[in-house]
Amino acid sequence: MPSVFFSYSHADEALRDQLEKQLSLLKRQGVIEVWHDRRIGAGQDFGKEIDHHIETDDIILLLISADFLDSNYCYEKEMARAMARHEAGEAVVIPVILRACDWHGAPFGKLNATPPDGRPITQFPDRDQALLEVAKAVRAVAERLAPRGTITRDKAPGSVGAPAPKIDSAPRSSNLRVAKQFSERDRDAFKIDCFEFMAKFFENSLTELSQRNPGIEGSFRRIDANRFSAKIYKNGKSVAQCTVFLGDQFASGIAYSSSEMGNGYNELLSVDSDDQAMYLRPLGMTIARAGGDRAKLSQEGASEAYWSMLIERIQGG
Questions:
Q1: Strand 92-97 to strand 59-64: parallel, antiparallel, or no bridges (unpaired)?
Q2: Cβ contacts of 247 within 8 Å, gap of 6 or more
Q3: Residues 277-300: pLDDT tens digits?
Q4: 258, 271, 265, 266: which is closest to 298 by C-alpha?
């Protein structure tokens, strides 16, 4: 079966774990097998193990972020060798855009990236949907390769691009994750970080909206530490407005109100978690597009969802 190698920065390990979990069915069905450097055992040569897989694995996932681009090892060693094998037809390189960064000018920028259109995973309203798109891309490539087996098998030993000699290692599972525990302090800090990110997201979006559209003006006002408002004018007339605020004990979370005064709310995002990460879950009053109350929103996804509620009021013409 085709083998998959993860090339990534350790700063993105949490996202790599989430992606590997999304690939679980492909592993169970025998469609792929996966490897990354966390499978290197005690006493094994770190560099030799990575070199072995970068030289022999069939599918190489480049998990792209600013940290990946900043890493000399990821960029100059792993990515460079991966692209050389891709150009030689010895492997298939799939750029997976994790976080927003300037990647289009990189050597892999000419390749079709995933998720579709190279939209960063962290900017999807529902991160699970983004990871699913990556899994679909991996499955498609794996099924294309499977009929002819791995694509370096016909290389003679010692020839250019031939597999390195197999390195013996004790077999073990890559399923070594344990459930993480998040305290009330963790949840409160996450909620505040998300709110601050959202405030900056709205402020920047309103500025860009005004610059791109003649006759449209955006106004951002930070009311206090727990509340901000946004308003859009068209030819001087107010056409859309909202207030976003941190809720109280009766509505704990980040609330959206279409009223400038912020009395009541049209949607509420509360902090929730699974066994690996915290996320924002909508009450489901308005955000049906993002999966309703089943959605797991990152701070980018939550900001985009609330922004869409505001701007959709002027996009109808």
A1: parallel
A2: 253, 254, 255, 265, 268
A3: 889 999 887 765 444 446 788 888
A4: 271
Q: Per-residue pLDDT tens for 247-268? A: 876 668 999 999 877 668 899 9
**168 HSE (CA, 13 A, CB side):** 0
Is the CB of residue 57 less than 8 Å from the CB of residue 82? no
Residue with tokens 């370096």: 152
Give the torsion through C-alpha atoms of 71, 74, 75, 78, to 10 deg: 160
